[in-house]
Amino acid sequence: MASVTLEAVTVRYPAAARPALDAVDLHAADGQLVVVAGPVRSGKSTLLRVVAGQEEPAEGRVLMGGVDVTGVPARDRGAVMVFQNYALYPHMSVGDNMSFALRVAGVPEHERAERVREAAQLLDLEDRLEHSPEDLTGPQRQQVALARAVVRRPAVLLMDDPLATLPPGLKDHTAGLLRTLAHGLGVTTLHATTDPGPLAAAADRVLWLDSGRLLEDTAVTGPLVP
Predict the structure, then answer these.
(1) pLDDT greater than 90 at residue 3
(2) Which residue has the higher pLDDT, 217 or 125?
(3) Complete domains list, the chain, with CATH
(4) For the residues of the chain, what is the DSSP string, one character each?
(5) What is the pTM of this model?
């Protein structure tokens, strides 16, 4: 488990009229599901990249578990990103897609199998492990992408609106799964989205990001207002 803290984080891009992130303070406690909502180009993806170590802030600090990781490479942070573009390997089965990163990391075969089994059970993929990704629907492929992240047992899960393309019923179901992941497995989760929808009810906290500035919104039901 690892909390996530941003302290006055500012990110500037060349020729941009204003900072992508403007002195952002954020704290997500261990095992919390935190939704970061906001319009397009509000800085949501930039915030996730800063936490992941893919973007270096011009000012401020990033802490995980209370440890300053601002200068720590992405590969050493224990954070995993999940995107809308699930990018599965078409020549591999669903199970092999899920276990690929573990195999590269040298995780023993029996442990890989156990982690895949657990993730498949959690995400309703048990009967599809031998299938090709091409045999799956778009929503099912997105579930495989989420399972692929879960098997790595990250300390922090960063989600860049991967539920946006799911149908409403499955979006509700997956929102509940994310809460289970965060609370049951202790995976601190930041989910960036333009539309909180069912995630708002599942989240521990909902924040609104607009023009690079982050404000907390205490409402977890109904429409968010900046």
Answers:
(1) yes
(2) 125
(3) 1-78+156-220 (3.40.50.300), 88-153 (no CATH)
(4) ---EEEEEEEE--TT-SS-SEEEEEEEE-TT-EEEEE--TTSSHHHHHHHHHTSS--SEEEEEETTEE-TTS-GGGS-EEEEESS----TTS-HHHHHHHHHHHTT--HHHHHHHHHHHHHHTT-GGGTTS-GGGS-HHHHHHHHHHHHHTT--SEEEEESTTTTS-HHHHHHHHHHHHHHHHHS--EEEEEES--TTHHHH-SEEEEEETTEEEEE---SS----
(5) 0.85
